[in-house]
Amino acid sequence: MANQDKIFAAPIEKMGDFTFDENVAEVFPDMIQRSVPGYSNIISAIGMLAKRFAAPDSHIYDLGCSLGAATLSMRRHIPHDSCKIIAVDNSQAMVERCRLHVNAYRGAADVEVREADIRDVEITNASMVVLNFTLQFLSPDDRQALLTRIYQGLKPGGILILSEKYRFEDDTANELLIDLHHDFKRANGYSELEISQKRSALENVMRPDSITTHQARLNAIGFSSVAMWFQCFNFGSMFAIK
């Protein structure tokens, strides 16, 4: 059973920015399930998409892999043993646990887990790239450049999966979806203090874009097909095919 997320359960006198440190890594499975609506559906579908898009003798990238949920979902579904999954995260605590998880489960595809900044990773010979709730933690100035490099490193017909929290341009809709997300967290046992403190901790490090911003950026880069395939409240996932 996953360790329960109690990171923001007690009052924090001086609130710092949210970081993916040892404390977060310890409770991450519980945190993500109780905080991100539809997370399990997204992970399952990433595996289904890998079965369809992973090409023999190609690379699959999981950029911002955390504990490796998307990596393992893809590994279980990829039928080719000539594929290589490259899972990357800049958190040492996450990478160490991801390696343990990868080593515990067998699959057709080979997996390499790297501790690195995803902005420094060369994307080559890729049939599939996953950014699962990762882009939102990069500086807005770095997003276009990363997505462009992903596009350039994708094989023709390759797919990018981009899961994010969204900001909505209509203020009424945006506030309603934020409130519904908070209701989701309350229903999963988070207190008002936990919700408030985590929101403050994330304020400076997670800056979501709107759906139209994502779509316009991907279209401008050159992807031939861009679509939203999943949404629950202000969270969702898109695909972009080269």
UniProtKB/TrEMBL annotation:
Catalytically driven reaction(s): prephenate + S-adenosyl-L-methionine = carboxy-S-adenosyl-L-methionine + 3-phenylpyruvate + H2O
GO molecular function: carboxyl- or carbamoyltransferase activity; S-adenosyl-L-methionine binding
UniProt record, GO biological process: tRNA wobble uridine modification
Keywords linked to the UniProt accession: S-adenosyl-L-methionine, Transferase
The protein's enzyme class: transferase
Residue intervals of the Methyltransferase domain: 60-158
Residues the record lists as binding S-adenosyl-L-methionine: Y39, G64, C65, S66, D89, N90, D117, I118, N132, R199
Keyword Zinc-finger among UniProt keywords: no
Enzyme Commission code: 2.1.3.-
A Pfam family that the UniProt record links to this protein: Methyltransf_25
Coiled coil regions in record: none
Function: Catalyzes the conversion of S-adenosyl-L-methionine (SAM) to carboxy-S-adenosyl-L-methionine (Cx-SAM).
NCBIfam families: carboxy-S-adenosyl-L-methionine synthase CmoA, PRK15451.1
Assembly and interaction partners: Homodimer.
Record-stated family: Belongs to the class I-like SAM-binding methyltransferase superfamily. Cx-SAM synthase family.
Protein name as annotated: Carboxy-S-adenosyl-L-methionine synthase
Organism: Salinivibrio kushneri
Taxonomy of the source species: Bacteria, Pseudomonadati, Pseudomonadota, Gammaproteobacteria, Vibrionales
